Amino acid sequence: MPAIPAQALEGYVARIFVAAGSPEAEAHAVAEHLVGANLRGHDSHGVIRVPVYLALVRSGGLTPGGPTTVLRESASTAVIDGGMNLGPVVAIRAMDIAIQKARETGVAFVSCVRTGHIGRVGAYGEQAVAAGMGAMGGVNSPGARLTAAFGGGHRRTGTNPLMIALPGDDPSRPFVLDMATSVIAEGKLKVAVNRGTPVPPGDIIDGDGNPSTDARDFYGTGDNPKPGALLPVGGPVGGYKGFGLNLAIELLSGALSGAGTAVGGPRGTNGVWFIAFDLGRFSAPAEWREAYAALAAHVQEPPYAPGVEEVLIAGEPERRRMAERLASGIPLDDETWRQIAETAESFGVTPLAAD
Prior knowledge:
three-stranded antiparallel β-sheet; 41% helix; 11 helices; Hypothetical Oxidoreductase Yiak, Chain: A, domain 1; 3 domains; 14 strands; Wheat Germ Agglutinin (Isolectin 2), domain 1; alpha+beta; Ribosomal Protein S8, Chain: A, domain 1
């Protein structure tokens, strides 16, 4: 398993996207986003996506460099056509628009259609927080069927992640909640397949609706040839809550924007919604920091459950993993590395030597 320095990996991935037709600045934005996901420990949304994105480019499903067009807007809203460009490019622009509008109006809501997979949605929350804003957002995948309904035995909707991001009491430690509304993100199953590792009980069911820990059963490549499904957050007992969130994100992302829902829409795309809001319109900065610090201290106070040494706030695990991987490199399993190198060579990019 190679461990690649983040800067070298980012440059390599950017060269691949340039070779595939992305303008230089956009290629670097996509590379920074994907490597940033790996740095934070979200390998499911990192460079493992490079072959997937470029397969869509090669087939004509995505158009690197596609223009971003505002279809409809008001002082505090906008609907954006991403021109079928790579998702991180469009989502960064969409959040920029939301931030600009929120500065003027206090709160802004922006939807995106015709955009590729936007990757780790938490990154756009971090973008808003860096601009002094709070943010919320969600994503669906039109036509995608990955997650079972609560009590259902087959795929019905996408993983439909939800993001909430807020400044913390320290600028370097924002609150960043980024969660799939399925128990596990589908990309983590790709990682498990490539690594040959099992997934925890209660994450997936096989093609006959039975519990499974073999990620291959989700894809129908294990012992059961019929594709399985993810379970909604809460699993077989409390999954009705996760299923409710999943449908809410599906409606806000796909139905409201017009991007399409799980019933149908352009495959390989995302429907996206972002809200940016100016915290200064609601609370003085000092009062916010004080309230945040008090609440964080309250919930992190010991004693802890047996075997637990501390309570972490959303965003903290990612910051710790990032510090580790900046120091030691980003570990990639051999199969993922082989797929990336093969994709690079297919676009005429010389493979990067791995240690």
